[in-house]
Write a structure and sequence with these properties.
Two copies of one chain form a homodimer. Chain A contains three helices and seven strands; from the N terminus they run E-E-H-H-E-H-E-E-E-E. With 151 residues, chain A is α+β, with helices and mostly antiparallel strands. Chain A has a single domain (26-139), classed as Nuclear Transport Factor 2, Chain: A, CATH 3.10.450. A five-stranded mixed β-sheet of chain A has the order 3-7-6-5-4. The first copy, chain A, has a two-stranded antiparallel sheet with strand order 1-2. The longest helix of chain A has 19 residues, at 27-45. At the A-B interface, strand 2, helix 1, strand 4, strand 5 and strand 6 of A face strand 2, helix 1, strand 4, strand 5 and strand 6 of B.
Chain lengths: 151, 151
């Protein structure tokens, strides 16, 4: 996995009135990142429908306009992937966390050998379960105005 | 501005060996968010080419495949917006920070009255200057499979 951002607690500052630690990332944020990356690997890439309930909450608010709402809607999406694109794979390139949110910037390829799409998924977690999801999807174009790539 | 996530230092935990503060967001992350939101308002929405140098570093690595690299490429993009879409406006809906990165999920409308696009911008900052940018852009569709909207 290239360039996954794994910022952890780095800064310790001693304040006048006692010891004060300024953490760039809380333990909960680190844990949320790992939960989402596991979910990516087991559910999204592994297409394991049975594993869904380990990661999603009892409700799952879906903002992807192409997907039905709720846990059942997501289950149908994974079944669709398993049937229609069994080799589909999403490779996280950046992973960020801020409070209850985890943001994943990934390169998704449904058919091996194609350029695929750049995707940002935003997940909101409650009590270590994913309860809400937004995403933005853009196909990787054949040519670009700069040589830096989309990732 | 709706639903902008402004997570700040919230958690104080006393550890056994002394006072330990676990911050969900460092002062630098809070400052980076504000820099990017100011940049959004003054440069992107205000289309103020002169303000660019206040926010961008001496180099600006561009990953948007439609935009030329560097500060000069970005200046040309703002001039294009000012000339072709003078009423273009991007409304941040979520703003996240993680280390040197700020992520903005926004609703961009170039022509008032149109549905516009959902965009995620990812900015990397060094010394309070924006030095690298990725984005993903998806038009808001006319209909959706759920009633939650894209934001």
């Amino acid at each position: 996995m290239n360039r996954v951002v794994t910022t952890v607690v780095v800064a310790l500052v001693l304040a006048g009135s006692g010891s004060l630690a300024i953490a760039q990332e809380s333990a909960a944020e680190t844990q949320n990142k790992q939960i989402v990356l596991d979910f990516y690997e087991k559910v999204l890439n592994g297409k394991n429908v049975e594993a869904i309930t380990s990661y999603l909450g009892s409700r799952y608010t879906q903002h992807n306009p192409g997907a039905a709402d709720g846990v059942e809607g997501f289950r149908k999406f994974i079944e669709f992937l398993r049937k229609s694109y069994p080799q589909a794979h999403s490779e996280p390139r950046h992973v960020f966390a801020d409070g209850d949110y985890v943001i994943v910037h990934s390169h998704a390829i449904r058919d091996p050998g194609t350029r695929g799409s750049a995707i940002v998924d935003i997940f909101r977690l409650e009590d270590r379960k994913i309860v809400e999801h937004w995403d933005i999807i853009q196909p990787v174009p054949e040519t670009a105005a700069n040589g830096n790539g989309m990732f």
